[in-house]
Structures are given as structure tokens and as C-alpha cells.
Amino acid sequence: MEKLSVKNFLVIKEAEFDIKKINIIIGKQASGKSVLSKLVYFFREFLSETLLNSITDEEINKSKLKSLAISKFNRYFSSDFWILDYFEIKYQNHEFEIVLNNKKNKKKLTFDYSKNLSNLHGKLRNQYKKEIKKSTADFDKNKVLDDIFDKDFFKEDHSIKFTPVTFIPSNRYFLSMLDNNMFFFFKNGVNIDPFIENFGFDYNISKSLYQKVCDALTKSFPNFIIKSNILIENILIGKFILEKSKSWIEYKDSKTSIQFCSSGQQEALPMLLTLFTAPLLKLYENKLLSIILEEPEAHLFPVAQKHIISLIASISNQLDTNFIITTHSPYILTAINNLIYTADVRKNNDSDEFDKEFDTSYDIQYENVSAYTFNNGVLETILDDDARLIGTNIIDGVSDYFEDNFNKLASFDRS
Questions:
Q1: CA Rg, the chain, in Å?
Q2: Assign residue 310 a region: left if phi > 0, alpha if psi is -120 to 50, beta otherwise?
Q3: Which residues of the chain, if any, have pLDDT below 50?
Q4: What is the pTM of this model?
């Protein structure tokens, strides 16, 4: 069980976010979707990186870990916007709990985590010390860590609680515009959004290894690789090619630099390559991956949005990847509902014709889905348990708005 509770942080008045395998947050702009997803990223990153990486450094005690966490929180959420506000944020991942507090009248942010998490950290550090004493002078620190995780960490089923996380932000077209100049830009001291910067590193790795991963895993996952590439090419309207560190989209007999492609292609390429490649790279390390994705629909036609959801469903099913998706698009909800309904119909229909028409690779199980929207700063579920679908009220509400407007116009039409 994973859960995030938020009270009075920025635009969020109250949120109780129960996190499942596929999670959707839909709503208008500036409603709190991005804040909520970035908070999840912050906590997951603390567990999977800051905490685990610190076991090799004796100088990093619990007090230092708290300071590191607060420093990173300030980087992700500038204190200029919350320093005078009281808020409380709780993150629960199975038996572990982390709490962030900005207490009334104290103007001091506090960060703390449960004793069982502190005990686990101490146990891992002690085990690391023992392994170091047994190692030779030229020991490989990473290998020692891997051995500890294999022996003491993963056997206790802690791995799912410390799953690495990738954040795919909106405005990712920026990285397509920079293309192979990305790191020259980053290294020259330009003040850049930390989520774009973090994603830039993930995207660069995915871009560099995309074709190698496809070639290496085609024998192991032939259907998955082939179907995924078909979806990617349908969304891009072309094939991705990397030549001398430059990105190109090839369509028919011509190719175009990503820097001169359409805005939809520029938004989609970093997202698609990372969605596909990053979980497969973690598979090499025998690890899972969680992905937080902002606005998958950006600059894309509704049919392409449907293809993205099919790709996400396939990755989730094949690689056991967890997703949090923020969106403005009712087409995204409709695409997910279609795949939920497909899975339900399949349970009562064993015909070969159905399986041929509706690929089981893309089924989404209703029990694995959470769906929310923000209403005046309060997070509300939009799941319809009776229909076993994401509620259509929010979709119908958009249609009703335009229909009402059209009917008003029609009432004045004298032609």
C-alpha cells in the first residue's frame, strides 16, 4: 500500500491519494495535479536514491539525511511560495512513513521518518561495513551494495517499496529543441527547472540506448518490442533514428531533424523513448521502475493519445511498471476506460475472434486503477465502482459545456 496525504500545501487544501498501479489525475490547469505528482516523486526519490545511497557514507546520519531531504524539497518547491504557510504532508509506503511539517508560527520545515525505516537503514549500513571488512583492497563498492541488496534487502520483499522513479515533465519539447546540445546548456550554469534537468539525463540515456535495447531484447520479448515500436512510430508518424548524437524522424524516403519537426513530435519523442527504454534498462538490473508522466496528450491528435495509453498499458503489463499520469484530456480517460472494459469483457468471453480483435497486451484491470480530480483544492475520486470505469461525469461535463454554448448561439441564428 502506498498513500500520500496533503493538507494546505500550495493550491492543495486536502488530498488523500491512494496510489495503485495505474493512477490518473485529471483537471484544469493550476488545480494541483502537478504539485501532487511532484510530491510523490520527491518521496519516492528519497527512498530509492537518497536513503539507499547513503549507506556507504558513515558521515551521513539521520540528521544529515533530514537536511539533505529538506534541501531537495526546497529545490523542487521554492520556499518563497510556502514559508509562511502551515502544512502537513504524510507519505506511507507499506509499513514505512515519512512526514513533512511546516508548523504554525515557527517558520521551520521539519522532515522525519518512521523508526522501522531508520532501523532498516542502520541494518543495511552495518551489513555494508561487514562486507567491506571481508573485501580486498580493490573491492567494487557497487558490487558490494548489490550483494547486500540481493541477500538482505530483496529477500525481505523491500524492493517494491524502494522502486526507482522517473519523472517525465511537460514542456519536454525543450529537450528536443536542444537535442545534442542539451548538456552543453546544462553545464553552463543556466538556471533550469530541476524536473527538466533530471529528465534530461534520463532522456539522454534512453535516446542513446533505444536501438541497442530493441536489438538486445527482440529475442526475449519479440511481441512486446515489435508492438511497442509500431505504436511509437504511429505516434511519431515516422521512425526515430540517432546519427552522430543527433535525433531524426524518418518518414517514407526523407528524414527531418527533431529540431525542425512538428511540436507534437518534439513533445512526444522524449516521452516515448523514455517510457519504452527506461523500464527495460531497469529490467537488466532486476529492478522495477515507477514513472510519473505529465500531459501525455500534449500537441497530439486524439488517436495518438489512444496509442500512448495502449503503450503505457503494455509496459505496465509486461514490465510491471507503475504509472502516475496527469492530464487535461478527456480522450485519455476514454482510452483507459476502453481498455478497462476490454479486460472485463474478456473475462466472460473466451472466443478466438475477440482475442484477435482486442489484444490482451493492452488490458487494464479495474482493480489496478485510481482516478482523481481536484475540486476547489480538494482531491476527489472519479471512479465508478458500479460501472467499473472511470466516471464519465467529468467527460460529459466538458461536452455539456460546449453543447450549451452552441445551443445559445443557435438561438440567435436568424439565417
A1: 23
A2: alpha
A3: none
A4: 0.92
